[in-house]
User: Fold these one by one.
Assistant:
Number 1:
Amino acid sequence: MGIGIRIENLRKVYHTPPPSAARGAGFSFVTQRSAGPKEKKKFEVVALDDISLEMRPGEVFGLLGPNGAGKSTTIGVLTTRTAPTSGRAFIGDHDVWQEQVRAKLLIGVVPQRPNLDFALTAREILLFHGAYFGQSARERTRRAGELLEKFKLTERADHMCRTFSGGMMQRLSIARAMMHDPEVLFLDEPSAGLDPQTRLLLWEIIRDYNRLGKTIVLTTHYMDEADSLCDRLAIIDHGKIIAQGAPRELKASIPGGYLLRLRFDRVPEELIAELKKLPGVTEVRSADHIAADVYADRGGPLIASIVNTAQAAGSELHDVHISEPSLENLFLHHTGRSLRD
Amino acid sequence: MNWKTFYALLSRDGHVARRNLLPMLVQNLLQPLLLTFVFGRVLTAGGMMQGAYKNVLLPGVMAISMVLAGVQAVAMPLITEFQFTREIEDRLLAPMEIGWLAVEKIVAGMIQALVSGLVVIPAAWLTLGSGVNLDFHQPLKFAAVCLLVAFFSAAGGLALGCSVGQTQIGLMFSLVLAPMMMFGCAYYPWSFLHNFPVLQYAVLINPLVYASEELRGTLTHVDHMNTMIVIAVLSGINLAVLVVGLKKFRGKAVS
């Protein structure tokens, strides 16, 4: 029961700008220009840099990372829409690029931006989608009715979908992906642009579908979404996996867990050395001369001693921000950047 | 090959075409009919053209309509579907090798080209009034050339639709389709170009020349090119356009 996914040493280099309209509204890869003396300058973007992953049957797997990290390209390769430069991808036992048709039968895809067939009504979109997958007329009529009801679209079912609001289009995209009852459901940034209420409805629908034993793969740059929805996560940045595991394990892997971001008027070396000696502090990082990031196993209780240490070193504390153990901190810890940077 | 999927995709295109039937007919028929009326009716009635010109004009107008209908039926939707909205994505994910989706587009385009071509005959015949002598004396050749022209227009639409961006649609019409129509021997037989020897041989790269000539040959008794040459050349062009179209389609479909 359930279908797993395996990715082996996947690499993707784009030589032309990827169709950003298709996937990923905000592609921002690292551009690498080859600098050989004879070589002509050519466009080259490494979107995936030797990625290997395993997603287990029946789990909700999340790809977390900032825009342009390579999440959508990974989904693109797994859903036959992006040809890998090298490496292999499997849905169940089927090599996605050797047995495309078999792979396509197993998957449903919710794109980052709705790509609904504007020439059709909502109901027709579902009916034709069912027909593409060989469902009988009776079966697809029944299933389309159920899904329209479930996604609260029955009232507008016979309207042209081009008149729909963004949220309705998103719901219809998900309904369409579920129409042929796929074993694996891919959702690329499913909650981008949704209001909080619709977002909760979406989460509920994803959990329900997962309860049927289906594998779910989703990309997101929302920490809370990854945290509450995913059984396991891979954190991607610049086409590389920087951490993977269950959200709880990942958070536990941050040294100390708590992060105190401090700002001083100045940060002399001895202040950093003294901060490191404080009880519960596991790591201190200072990128410039006015700020320091302190990783510790406690938050608030540490403030008094930090203030005292600063005074002793002749610095003045200007600002403190305490964050609890979170995936955001994990990302920051690995990359030195915030997910939203 | 997954025929159920192929058929479902074809019925999707049929469904959309039926929904847009009236605008589509106007788009494909109005211009050729107006041309037919002005050149075949107004000018002949006024004595500037001989009545026999009607027989030259009608097959040419039919060829133009077929080519335009096929190109528009395939190229225009493809241009939008591959652009910003990526509407075609769902069909690319249908359980079928993606090359077959291009083939399905060609089949749908052929059907529309054939329908347009066949509707033009009675419509133009009515517009032209008396003096048209149509003669289906070679029904098999007529059917063969209709199929070849329809295939050319649909496969050509595929190649164009996958090469042209949304902003270049106007350019496509003025740079590709307009010269093709004017130098397609639709309004005059190819032999009339003998006063312009360079042009006469230059236009031979234009598939519409063969389409007009052969339709003229199978529908009327006006002088025309040799049928076997026409069929051979059109088949060759069709194959080339198909190869280019499929290649371009794959390039667009998979990033």
Number 2:
Amino acid sequence: MGSTKRVSRGRSVRWRAGAIAVAASLAALTAACSSSSSSSSAVSASSTQTITFAESGLGTEGMQTAKAIKGFEAANPNIKVNIQVLSSDSTTYLSQLEHNFIAGSSTPDVFESDVTYPAKFAQAGWVLSLAQFSPNMGQYFPHEVAAGTYNGTYYAVPWFDNPEGLFYRTDLIKTPPTSPAQVVSDAEAAMKADKTLKEGIAFEADKYEGAITAFLTVDSAFGGSLNPQNIDTPGNVAALNWLHAAIYQYHIAPTAVTGWEEGQVEQEFVSGYTPFAIDYPFVESLATAAPVKGNVGYIPFPAGPGGTPGSALGGEMLAINAKTAHAAAAWKLIEYLTSPSVEIARAIATGDPPSLPGAYTSQLLSAAPYFAAVKTLNTYSAPRPVNPNYLTVSADIQTIFSSVFANSAANAASSALASGAATVKAAANATPAG
Amino acid sequence: MTAAVADASAAPAKPAVLKYRRRITPRKIVRETLFYIAVVIVVLIALFPFFWILRTSLESNSQVAAGVGGVNGIIPSHLSGEAFVNVFTQQSFLTPLLNSIIVAFGCTVVTIIVASAAGYALARLNIRGTGAILAFILLAGFFPVLAMIGPLFLMLRYIGALNSIYPLIIIYLVYTLPISTWLLKNFFEQIPKDLEDAALTDGATRLQTLRKIVVPVAIPGVFTAAILSFILAWNDFAFAVSFLNTQDHFTAPLAITTFTESGYQTFYNLLDAAVVIVSIPIALLVLFAQRRIVTGLTAGSFR
Amino acid sequence: MATEVEQVKEGRPARAGRPPRRGDKQERADRRLGYALVTPVIVLLLAITGYPLIYNLWNAFHFDNLSYGNLPHKWVGFSNFSALFHASSGWVAALERTLIFTVVTIVFDLVVALALALMLNRNFRGRGFLRASVLVPWAVPTVVSAALWKTMFDPRAGFVDYFLGFFHAPWASISWLGASVWRSWVAIFVADSWKNIPFVAIILLAGLQVIPNEVYEAARMDGATGWQSFRRITLPMLKPVISVALIFRTLQALLVFDVIYVMTTGGPGNSTETLSFLNYQTFIVNTDFGSGGAMSVLLVIIALIVAFFYVRAFRPEQTT
């Protein structure tokens, strides 16, 4: 009996030790496996550096980026680029980037940034100031340069400049509409004449950033502008109301638009289901099948009385992680990707318009004539507010728009903007408690 | 099963009742038919959606855009495997699948070891405070998961383990430990005590009886707990979406959601192909092991 | 099953206090082993739940937002909590929505699950197949259920509109998610209940199986109808089981997240934002751990209240 007691005590101690050992080894395993995921390569003067480039591109965009980077590596044998593909959904992409910054990671060294991010990143101290490289920003479209500027300092370089506009079928709409009202009547006429059409106009009305750019595309046509200090202006109400009426009054847009993003809108247009669509230039490069092929028109949204032609500024920029260990190599990559020849090659392959006015050469226009239209739209494109709080502002505006598109009442637009204006203003002006 | 046992024991003792049951009235036929119709409806509600996603996953992009109807009826005229090819090549769905398998398997192994030990202790070893410990374990199972993600995020960030699947093996224990411990405790309680008592009086230690006698008998219960744990660990989404950042570290449920939100390619055939891939193994597991799962969940529970 | 339990109970030594059967030493050795075996589960669960709880409590009283990483984590007292009760935070609205959703869900699910359990309890050919079919929705991930029903409710790719179109042509292109508040909730409700009713049914089935058939026989001999024996025998004997099922289901509905994220991301507007979804937004999207901490503390309190309510409400009925 006595020996049993001694043995069992020893055994139970061993059990406890075993449990602790299991826990410890699991913790070690965790630490070991995690340290491999955030790599930071040492910088050495003459040997190869590896920098990480984060982008969201899939499909043709991804392939073209890979191609361009191969060219860069060939021109710079000491620099290797590791491409990291993140989500192609802008909201997810943003949170993925932010996770890296919050975790204090030095990678990605260079990353693709939507035009609305640089102000926030700059305020949070996550991006490197480009002043040390004395960049020549005059060669880019000024609207986009402004998006990458915070407190007078440059933080991001325009990579491509995506103006959103109105696509239309030139075989169904003989002359382009010259007013919002005419868009409606043209759409109605086309739907009556051609029963294979499923709707008259397709646009993005899902609860996401793209709904704001779709709105911006029609906004200036009604004399509106998106200023978070006061979004409840007659122009904004008229613009939002037009989109709302397209669904609920004129019935030229289906309620399904509330679930559509750029991809679905493009699919509707390219499949020939709609004569009008509000979307980005990439649609052109995908309009490769009948009946749409060769019948694509692309114009700014036509101005109404008291308005100007409408387009929304989209696009991507390139920026450098503030914690990078390879600032010089990172800047070399940016310079290369934003050089005219590389941008032209990308434009022809993917439909991403160059961010340099100087790249709209005859070579580009002969290869892809629709870029002439893009250049026109670039002169009208309205940017989103450059504000470090833009992402919270955007979330509030998305909520407002999404509730309007789900509300069939005739005054949905005016009442939502009236009641939501104060929230948006507060979000824009918010300073953190600290 | 109990009902069947009770039926068998009741019948011989009450011939009067037996005669009553034997009379088949038209009313009885109607009720039986209605019952079977109800069964069919239930099976349809449970399984038809899976048929629908299988059907949609075998459509091409243009068929999905065209909508349901005409040639694209309940069974479309053309079937194409392009969605499945796409899911594995362009969306690289294989990596998230493997990640999920690693995490779910790892979590199941840890769960079995820890829950068996605890379940046995609570069932047999007379610890003071058994009730309180059991209550704590069950309470932990009710803890709101979304309330945990903030601090766990900060902690993982601190030790540099964000965007890694390995911490999930431990974190998922919050799903699996409570129900596995409870289930195994019930299971151990039902093993006849005489077996162990006999061995103990023969001079074996508690641990020896554990190893040689209890473990072999406990295997069915452990197996059930393992199946349940695997399913629960596999199914998590909240932790995955909060801690995992890049596609190559995603788990399968998280990877599926990227198909619903991808900016330029949101085609239901892709989404449904991924859903089919994730659901088929689970469905097979359940079909194969349904008796075990049901018995495990219902065994000796409510006194 | 009942008889086995009986047998085991008889053989166990009394819990409170001493009398050992095989000798004090064995008893103590057992107990030590028992503590060792039970330690891992307690330690692990405490680490995963207790630590976040404390950390949340700490954060709830400070300013902690990683997007403003340079700012210090100041003590802010109760201001994180009081901000939640302002209309602008959306928390109170989320609470209301979540409560309504929970109540509707548990009532509907309980009734349907009970009917399903009665069906599963019946001994008929094909019962195994019915059980297996019904378990499959429960076994797949919630995300899968949400994606599946998102497909089903899509105007183009889904079956719901196709089916409805046979009754009334315009119904073939109704938009459910994002286009209407009540229709979004219907889709969410269907996806959530379809997945969870089987689990409730299995728990109720367990309770049904423990009721001995003799009780029903006796009642029938006394002339009770099916409905009467259901009301007077089945329901009362199911009370403990119903309470367990309700605790699970209520907490599940209260904390619904996966379905919302996949199907609507809180839209249209804010109308499908639930408490858990708001937590996720605050922590992960807004990186605000102070406000998120406050929300989490409140969420835990609510969950505890629900758990205690059910335990209290059903305890007096239980016979020991």
Number 3:
Amino acid sequence: MDTSWFVVLSAFIFCIGAAGVMTRRSPLVVLLCLELMLNAGNLALIAFSRMLGNQDGQVFALIVMVVAACEVVIGLGIIVAMFRRRLPIDVDEMSELRG
Amino acid sequence: MNVTSYGWLVLAFPLAGTLLIALGWRVLPGRSAGWLGTLSIGLSFVASLAMLKELLAHPEDSRALVGTAFTYLDTAGVVADLSILVDPLSVLMCLVVSGVSFLIHLYSVAYMASDEGYARFFAYLNFFVFSMLLLVLAANFVLLIVGWAFVGAASYLLISFWYRRRTAVEAGIKAFVINVIGDVGLVVGAFLLFDGTGALDYVGVFERAPEVFGENSPQIVTACLMILVGAFAKSAQLPLHTWLPDAMEGPTPVSALIHAATMVTAGVYLIARCHPLFELAPAAADVGAIIGTATLLFAATVALAATDLKRVIAYSTMSQIGYMILGVSVAAYGAGLFHLMTHAFFKALLFMGAGSVIAAMSGQQSLNRMGGFRKAMPFTFVTFTIGALALAAFPLTSGFFSKDEILAFTLHRGSFYVVLAVVGYIAALITAFYSFRMVFRVFLGPTVTQARELEQGQLAHGEHANPATGEEEDTGVGFPGAEHHIAEREWPMKAAMAPLALLAVLAGTVGIPGLTETLEHFLEPTFKESKFHESVPSESAELIGLVVGGLFAIIGIAAAYYYLLRDPMLRLRTRERFKRIHGFLINKWYFDELFDLAIVRPVAACGRFGRSVVESAFVQGVLVGGTVGLVRAGTSFARAIQTGELRAYAALVLMGVGGLVLYFLIVSS
Amino acid sequence: MIFEQILFFGAGLGAIAGALGVVLLRNPFYSVLALVTHLVALAVLFLLLQAAFIAAAQVVVYAGAVMVLYVFVVAYVGGSDEPLRPIEGGAVAAFGPLFALAVFVEISIAVLGSSLDALGSRGAEVSAGFGSPAEIGRLLLTKFLLPFEAASFLLLIAAVGAVVLARKRKGLEESSAQDAREPGVHGGAPRVDEPRPDAHGTPRVGKPRPEPSG
């Protein structure tokens, strides 16, 4: 298969993830959509790595996976902390970033 | 030592005195601050004498010597040195200033002895003498202006010496403000001269002025008029005269020194010094003559009605300075300066005597409450009367010779100056009248309680209060001291008044027409280039003038005697009959009210307008508020984005990404 | 070749289906499961791209560990159905899919219209050991040593952060007891006009407990 197929697939998944981030209310699902986007990025990286015959892309994807794992840990930790405090688990209610 | 070194010494001694007293007043015991101040001025006087002696050793045509300390400005075509000019005019002024100041310092040692601010007084007084000497010794306009400003500052400090007294502080401010107007005039005038001639020192300006300015050209007339503004403010001539009577709020020695003998004569000195310019601009000189005459008449009339003893003397000062200004404006330089010298003597003497009387009255100054001090204060009576005789120009006193010489010169000039001379003679009559009004009211007539007590040997002890408003005061710092000192009991005061009394009688001998012309002769090197140098009145004309003047003096004194002593009720009846005129005179021709209406109130209204409209509406509202509003409005868009909603942020990020991709798409295609 | 293409389309469809499932399914639990499917499909795609080690890591780490963590949290927090609300969240939610579509279109144009020839080919010739653990390991320890170490440091920070977030704080139990009386938090009606308990995110400290003596 040509590399372009993989890249277009990756773009598609990325955009589905983006749409999910903007649409869903539960922060859990938003995080899941974020995972989608990250994976799409990984796919693109691997595809280009294959295209160039260079394994740097694969190592990059590995590190991205590490980062994604860390981010999930913290994100879920926050959600658990919020749940413990009986705060609403709702993206629209969390507006402390207001400037 | 050469002449200019003595000149620097003359300046250095008072300066050293000021610094020593000002910095060391805490360690100086008792009255030593006063003695130190007196000593420094005494040394300055000795140095002036030495300067005179050295100057006379020079041949007559090289008696204008400039001594430069250093050049402190030499840039962009402006050259100003720290230099002094020693010539007959400045030496005369130095002698008069330092001599009279020495005697007044001596007087103050006793007079101010119980004042809490004793050391401060002498520091200020020394500073004043230094400034005045700087003014007269300056060799260029820059140093003149420096001395001019210092003198104004010293005057302010000394007028409001009793700084807790509200009226004194207000008077000080009034004097300072009017003096500043004069300062501005002087600076503008100096600038106009510099603009035309390119020089700032006297020698340079006077040499180049005739080449650069045509006779009576607008520039030179304007420059001279501006200089006149400065002279009038400092010498209290119309219309910048309102500060002088109020300045009597200061202690009596201050009135004697500054407002009689020295500072107010600075204007006369200025005109005499700049005489080449005034001869180049006769229009300005005429203005000077007219204002001088108007002032001398105005002041004489007001002195007829004033009730405060010191204010009567103040108005007499104003009047006599008017004579001097008239004199130097009609090119009678020698006569004008002669009158300056004699006036310094007898006016200081009069103030000293007044101080003694006021002390006997325990601070009160109103003529209405005084009377019959002749027996209680004989020394004061004699000296005061001598001063009054000199003021009235009684025959053979010093004032007689000097004043009538001015009037003789004025008559001699002819044309409209004759009118001025006639006014001068009329005013001389009035002068004689009011000077003896003072003598008769204070020393003769019914004896008041204070005088009677003093005859028994008891000095009056009244309430400590403001003589003008009657407000209660204490005797701490900022108010007069607890004790009062009269001449009969304090030898320094007697030692100061006696020489002045002698001089008031004998000083005329340097200017007897036809016999001794020492002063004229002495001043000749300075004024010999004057156009009017040769046109002097003939001896006979002068003698006639003297006779007329003497007659007027005697008539005036006799009128005063008749009016005040013969029939006590006559005074009150006349006042009733001429109530309107009396009111006009006692309100000083309503000048203060005029200024208040014409100047003070509009300016205050402008200030209020500025504060309410310009400041609050425009600056606060439009400028400040507008800027704030503009920034707020401009950034409201940015603030609207920060909603705090995560979705919105995510959407923004995505839109950013989309935008970037689009950009790269477009760029690469 | 054919096998490859079939595998590609199968895995591709699986990935897309999983993605759509994540976004569209209402129950968060089902979303998690959909994501697991997606991840596995992606692993297959990685295999197709000669990235064996990455595919294994994807399955073991991502689908294995991270998703299990997700499952735990969803079970703890409670994944009740999110009720369907039209245009909830305002204009953003309405136009979100459109923005995403726009971005997809742009990227597609970029890729397909690109003058990069290699995109239209299978790729460079690779050796047999391409993407093997040995190769990746060698790279990690030589060329990418610093990112490797940084990544481990990042993992350490994440672990510490997780512990910090999860620990109990003083007075929390009392406020938790207070909150128990309040209406249910998640999945309920939005509390728009209720005063936010901790508007500034500071830990709520209730009445300080008396210190035990000794």
